[in-house]
Amino acid sequence: MIKFWNDYPAFIEELNEVKSIIKQNIKSRESILEESISPMLENGGKMLRPAFLILASRFGECDLDKIHNIAAVIEMLHMATLIHDDIIDDAEIRRGCDTVQFKHGKDYAVYVGDFLFCQCFNMLAKYDYHMENLRDISKALTKICMGEITQYNLRYGKNASLRNYIRIISGKTAALFAISFYVGAHEANCHESITNSLGKIGYNAGMAFQIIDDILDFNGNTKKLGKSALRDLQKGYYTLPLIYALQNDKDGKLKKLLDSQCLTELEIDEILLLVNKYDGINKAKAVADRYTEKAINRIEKLPDCEAKRIIKASVSKLLNREY
Predict the structure, then answer these.
(1) Left if phi > 0, otherwise alpha if psi is -120 to 50, otherwise beta: which for 189?
(2) Tens of pLDDT along 279-300?
(3) In order of start, what are the domains of the chain with their CATH numbers?
(4) Contact at 8 Å (CB) between 248 and 278?
């Protein structure tokens, strides 16, 4: 987090306040709960969603304590979904450290994720938030679940297509980005047009973020990513670089390799070569560019202020990241 927001030391202080709120709300008489969640909070993580929520609130007037609390809620919801994702994916590394499920087992990890969800409800009850925002957060969580379910049902190339891929990532990733921007603006009583525009910025930024994340799964490395590279491929999830590469797989070589549901290291290496050879990476990057351009164009139309400049710089930075 510190590295990503390094150019804005005052803003880092606000994000540290959000982290402090999270720390306060993961305390329990069962000390192992805090011990298992804290490494995930402290190691890596750009805290994008709470950051964007806070930045969106700067376009209006708000109670900072109230905003920091709901920003913490958004990050905790995100953490809970990641813990549950790691159970499904049997992941060993997250944010550069052992996952909860790897260190403590799947059963315990389910309870830790559930605990975070429950704490979020308690935190939302602490302040008088707009009822519409509470409904929209609930809807965003539903979209995340539906995106994950759709992705699971389409494993190993079942109906792999650009349309289905967009449907999946608009739920599993873009929904929480969009609601972060929207809720921050709405709680700050921004004009409806600004609030809606910020929500759309969040959606487009989230789409670009996920596509880049999927590209990095093919050409990143575990140390930089802070999680296991090639996880999607190994689990049978066909992401955009692979979908585009398959469109150019005229001789069926790539498809034949993918027919195996237990890939060897040599087969994975060959798949990586073919995805690049068949232009899957470049075509996926072009789609990410388009979503980023949509986000930047909307950012340009926002009222001029420091928050606008930070949002623009950070969204641009996300597109060019290597981790």
Answers:
(1) left
(2) 999 999 999 999 999 999 999 9
(3) 9-319 (1.10.600.10)
(4) yes
Task: Give the strand pairing for 93-94 and 97-98.
Answer: antiparallel
- Give, rounded to a whole angstrom, the gap between the first and last alpha carbons of the chain: 12
- Phi-psi bin for 105: left (phi > 0), alpha (psi -120 to 50), beta? left
Radius of gyration of the chain (CA): 20
Beta bridge partners of 97: 94
Residues near 225 by beta carbon (within 8 Å), at least 6 away in sequence = 216, 217, 323
Nearest in space to 158 (alpha carbons), one of 258, 248, 244: 258
Q: How many other C-beta atoms lie within 10 A of the C-beta of residue 28?
A: 12
User: Which one, of 323, 158, 146, 143, lies nearest residue 237 by Cα?
Assistant: 158
Q: What is the pLDDT of residue 230?
A: 73
Q: What angle do CA 144, 15, 35 make, to 5 degrees?
A: 75
Backbone angles phi, psi at 236, to 5 degrees: 85, 15
Q: Distance (Å, rounded) from C-alpha 109 to C-alpha 88?
A: 11
Tokens of 232: 């999607």
- Cα 97 to chain centroid distance, Å, stands at 18
CA 79 to CA 116: how far, in whole Å?
Answer: 8
Task: Give a three-class secondary structure readout of 65-112.
Answer: HHHHHHHHHHHHHHHHHHHHHHHHHCCCEECCEECHHHHHCHHHHHHH
pTM as predicted:
0.93
Predicted confidence (pLDDT) per residue in 163-183, tens digit: 999 999 999 999 999 999 999
